[in-house]
């Protein structure tokens, strides 16, 4: 796993550990090294879960559109319904947002 220069993972919530483990396995299965491109750093939309340690971005620019769809599907299957996997043109964004719990307890 590589972490892009400037990416901040200090303060990442424990719930994101399973995301990192599964991401590394998936990228390896698709023949690429995992690159984390955003954690608690960067500029994101207001209220973004990145700022609270509940979101990560992973580089995908080297995957075909079909591979990205497959990775998104497999990622979603591996994680519980409390996680959202969103595909963007250059990365996959994964966030933890429980459906039945207060996130900010």
How would you characterize the overall build of this protein?
The chain has 105 residues and is α+β, with helices and mostly antiparallel strands. The protein has a single domain (2-96), classed as Muramoyl-pentapeptide Carboxypeptidase, domain 2 (2-Layer Sandwich). 26% of the residues lie in helices and 21% in strands. It has helices at residues 17-29, 65-78; strands spanning 2-3, 35-38, 55-59, 83-87, 91-96. The protein has a 5-stranded mixed beta sheet, covered by helices on one side. Helix 1 links the parallel strand 1 (2-3) and strand 2 (35-38). Helix 1 runs antiparallel to helix 2 (65-78). The longest helix is centred in the C-terminal third of the chain and has 14 residues, at 65-78. The chain is globular and about 35 Å long.
Brief rundown of the structure:
The protein is α+β, with helices and mostly antiparallel strands.
Please write out the topology:
Blueprint: E1 2-3, H1 17-29, E2 35-38, E3 55-59, H2 65-78, E4 83-87, E5 91-96
Parallel strand pairs: 1-2
Antiparallel strand pairs: 2-3, 3-5, 4-5
Helix pairs in contact: 1-2
Features:
globular; 2 helices; 5 strands; 26% helix; 21% strand
- Please estimate the helix content: 25-40%
- Give the total of beta strands: 5
Might you state the CATH topology name?
Muramoyl-pentapeptide Carboxypeptidase, domain 2
Q: Could you give the order of strands across the largest sheet? A: 1-2-3-5-4
Q: State the distance separating the first and last CA atoms.
A: 31 Å
Task: Give the uncertain stretches in residue-range form.
Answer: none
Instruction: Give the second-level CATH assignment, the architecture.
Output: 2-Layer Sandwich
* Helix and strand run: EHEEHEE
| Main sheet properties | 5 strands, mixed
Which structural class best describes the helix and strand composition?
Answer: alpha+beta
Radius of gyration: 13 Å
Q: What quaternary form is this?
A: single chain
Domain module count: 1
**Which CATH C-level class is it?**
Alpha Beta
Query: Averaging pLDDT over every residue, what do you get?
Result: 91
Shape category: globular
- Summed up, the helix count is 2
């Amino acid at each position: 796993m590589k972490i892009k220069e400037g990416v901040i993972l200090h303060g990442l919530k424990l719930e994101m550990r399973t995301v990192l483990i599964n991401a590394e396995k998936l990228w390896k299965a698709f023949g690429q090294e995992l690159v984390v491109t955003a954690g608690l750093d960067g500029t994101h939309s207001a209220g973004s879960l990145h700022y609270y340690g509940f979101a990560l971005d992973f580089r995908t620019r080297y995957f075909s559109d079909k591979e990205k769809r497959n990775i998104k599907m497999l990622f979603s299957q591996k994680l519980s319904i409390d996680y959202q996997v969103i595909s963007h043109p250059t990365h996959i964004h994964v966030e933890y947002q429980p459906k039945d719990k207060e996130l900010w307890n």
